[in-house]
Amino acid sequence: MRPAAALAILTLLPACSSDSPAASEHGGTSETGTSATGTSGPDTSTGEPTSGEDPEDLTCKHGPWESGKPIAMPELPTGDPAAGYTALLNEDYVSCGIPWELFGFAEDVLGVEEPLPGRTGKNAEVGHAWNVVSLEDGSELVVSNCLQCHAGYFNGELIVGLGKASADFTTSLSDFAEPLPDLPEINQANASFNKFKARAAALGPYSTMMTIGANPAVMFAIVLLSHRDPVTLAWNDEPLYELSTELVLPADPPPWWRVGKKASNFANGMSRRDHRGTMVLASSLCTDSVEEAAPIVDYFADIQAYIASLEAPSYPFAIDEALAADGAEVFECNCAGCHGTYADDPKAESFPNLLIPIDVIGTDPSFARQAAEGGFYHHLRQWFNDSYYGMFSEVVTDDPTPGYTAPPLDGIWATAPYFHNGSVPSIALVLDSTARPTTWRRLDYDSTNFDEAALGWPWQPAMPWSDAPESERKFIYDTTLFGYGNGGHTFGDHLDDTERRALLEYLKTL
């Protein structure tokens, strides 16, 4: 993606928390070190049962869920899902963007995105990730919407709610924004563009990703709050808290269809209570006062309801039902304790909403530790809870412990790459930590090129990021870089190949 495209989707935030030039989607060693298994009681990692106990039975009884800390489901405001879908695709919750008159020129650089059916007026003329809004003075503005991050392709189909796994944030937004001249502020749309450009310049140094697919959602939120007064939400050109270009955290946008089951948002489970606060904050690129934020918070009750109403798509390829039935048994013993149970009737399903401590899950600890007490970004908790948004939402980063939440696995087959930082290209590798590559790259960014056996994107080994030509670095995922580690979650290592194949087949049914 060229720098202008990166600016256009700079609202890629965890609230609603582009494609690689390599191809159209239509058509190792971890820095975390050795991870714990998280088991208690008999040492199931060695397979040595206590006297008189069946080893297989022990596998079912013990697991990381024993160390998990449950998060209570919040009581959310009532919302209208249909109204939420309308608001999602029509409202201006970013509060700045590109004047309508200039958007056609921007598309020459950004590329033309696939529109969504059913949109009307000028919204029918723009791609799915843009909204056209009229301002008070009659000027028109094209603003980003949540689908910049949360509409991805699988098997050539655009799926609303699927994280965009090929977004390119490897060019600093500052590199594009700073050279652009300000527009004469003859109307509100031009003034809005000038603010849009300035905010991009502020975000740029602290949100540049190392590889295509890595998402700066967490960093966008941190940078935005670091520039704002928590009570008034007024913007300050200089950050009020220290930021770092060395501690840039990557993320992987989760699918929206998990939201209805989850008690918290963000990989570390830090968004608690009514999630509208974190959702609106993360979208608030240019929302600089409580007066501006309040009506957005109001209609986000509907957007929140819409997101929670989504269901995972069905696996589009053949499933070996007998093998999947065998895999269901493997899943029940080894996975259900953390990831819940699944059934044709949703009322028969269960989900435990567990926060798994860092030393148990063992995945890259950078996000959880840097956000927790003593971490470089620990100020985000106090800022948020003291802010306007803290009146109805809450951020909790280390109570009772820093860790990561075990997500529901509905539609897991569609959501490669895996882990909270997108460091593992397939579920087969999630289930076998010994086979994970230290450095890798996707073969292409064609969403129809899917590995049905491994459940993920086809990949190949790559040279270290630092050794690659500069033009090639953006395609390389190097797990030795800060925040990009692929260690941990070793809970499938004890399975044999037959069990893994059966489990992968079962996951296709979710």
UniProtKB/TrEMBL annotation:
Region (Disordered): 17-77
SUPFAM superfamilies, alphabetized: Cytochrome c
Skewed-composition ranges (Low complexity): 27-50
Signal peptide: 1-22
Highest taxon in the source lineage: Bacteria
The keyword Protein biosynthesis is annotated on this UniProt entry: no
Keyword RNA-binding part of the UniProt annotation: no
The entry's keywords: Heme, Iron, Metal-binding, Signal
Residue ranges of every copy of the Cytochrome c domain listed in the record: 322-510
Name of the protein in question: C-type cytochrome
Source organism: Nannocystis radixulma
